[in-house]
Amino acid sequence: MKAALIQQKYHGSKEATIKKTLELIDKSQGAELVILQELHQGPYFCQSEDTRYFDLAKDFELDIDFWRKISKERQIVLVTSLFEQRAPGLYHNTAVVFDKGTIAGKYRKMHIPDDPGFYEKFYFTPGDLGFEPIDTSVGRLGVLVCWDQWFPEAARIMALRGAQILIYPTAIGWFDEDSDEEKTRQLDAWITIQRSHAIANGLPLLSVNRVGFEKDESGCLNGIRFWGNSFACGPQGEFLVRLGSDEERAIIVDIDMERTKEVRDIWPFFRDRRVEAYECLLKRYCD
Amino acid sequence: MKAALIQQKYHGSKEATIKKTLELIDKSQGAELVILQELHQGPYFCQSEDTRYFDLAKDFELDIDFWRKISKERQIVLVTSLFEQRAPGLYHNTAVVFDKGTIAGKYRKMHIPDDPGFYEKFYFTPGDLGFEPIDTSVGRLGVLVCWDQWFPEAARIMALRGAQILIYPTAIGWFDEDSDEEKTRQLDAWITIQRSHAIANGLPLLSVNRVGFEKDESGCLNGIRFWGNSFACGPQGEFLVRLGSDEERAIIVDIDMERTKEVRDIWPFFRDRRVEAYECLLKRYCD
Hints:
- 2 copies of one chain form a homodimer.
- By secondary structure, chain A is α/β, with parallel strands linked by helices.
- The first copy, chain A, has one domain (2-282): Nitrilase/N-carbamoyl-D-aminoacid amidohydrolase (4-Layer Sandwich), CATH 3.60.110.10.
- Chain A is 26% helix and 28% strand.
- Chain A has helices at 14-26, 60-74, 120-123, 152-160, 180-201, 259-266, 269-272, and strands spanning 2-7, 33-35, 77-87, 90-99, 102-108, 134-136, 139-143, 165-170, 173-174, 205-209, 211-215, 223-227, 231-233, 239-242, 249-254.
- Chain A has a 6-stranded mixed beta sheet.
- In chain A, helix 4 runs parallel beside helix 5.
- The longest helix of chain A is centred in the middle third of the chain and has 22 residues, at 180-201.
- The radius of gyration of chain A is 18 Å and the shape is globular.
- Chains A and B meet through helix 4, helix 5 and helix 7 of A and helix 4, helix 5 and helix 7 of B.
């Protein structure tokens, strides 16, 4: 199965950004599955808390229609990441998956971060659709979003529900003020935790992150330098492709969907889980 | 906190192997915590299924007394990995932790593997003590054993129960018949999944593996080349030390036990877990 990872910048407006996205999709001919990064239509607006950014969610239905048509024209399965207005005052960070002109399903980001420069709890209501894989013509997709990638629970549940591949649209980057050592640790941790989900669950994994520097428009912080490094790995966590930290680029990767069975047959972790001893996982803390 | 990782070979007999262990402990002066590898008193006997190996478990109480005395003499916290005869026909793979002459606690390996050359389900009854950290004078230790390392659930529960460090005595290696690519993938996966537990839980982690080639005495398979690579990493998964794949050696590492709070305060994963949506984790499979 051929998949394309589209790693790009924000180009100053929704129109210019989408134009670039379409250009990169067109460069990905042959890909049956195309993954876009988190909130790919616009800036990463969560750097400050400002009610005017809720306007970016109002065209959710139009956005869906637009990307549905793109998936039909290109005859692809397309993973998008949109800002959803569900009702006034009720918004989600929502991945919508299209399959050659139909809506295959959607996933509302379950784990919502909130730390300086990433004020997502202001914008996004935590998802209420659970961790449900989405069936498409290229397989059953375990689509998760950004902060979810730090939670082994999310990947595990997708796998236990039959996902055949894990997919993470994301938006993560560095603060220029941090030391080089801290930057290295953060990037390396981000790569490592995601590869570990592939390993623990015997699944291939695709992660697509944005690039470019985006200023904090509120002036409180300087801004975020999104670190790219979009990558794909196989079910032993082995790298298949990995992009750089500032290139704007589409890359196609060939995923062998049969390898999961081979790997799980020699590393049968699902056989040996001690489910009767895991109750503590349903608690906030076990003190 | 200074910890020593003792990576060694099997020396042909229990006596010779323990002599080498003590020599390496003596070379670790200054370490407050000493970690031995899985089943460090003998060979990795699980390469074949043979009832005579159950005899190796009969001196469990004497073994405990021996290592308790060592921990007292050296004034150390000592993590051992012993073959426990609990009753005739009932055996466990048990980590016993000593604290300067007292038994601090024990952990019976919960996840038991079984694949060619690693026939552990024949020998070890799955642990029935759960995932309980062990309190010692150097901190609350989340001791897990070998195969446990592939299960994010085990590390998470230890962390939710207040473990301050994750510790894995282990015995894993290559088959010479495997390709170099497969060997690289396996070693890399083993390192990656363990680093991911440090990252997901914001905890330092110590992993101690054996080295050396051990023949399959049954003659069915050739044997296992244990790959060493014992390592320590910090709460962002960053390497602190890492040993080679064939050196027999003790290495001391300085663990900053205060870094967990710093790292968790910027990456507050425990705050954001969606515990109400995790029920599927308690099932074998969610079909």
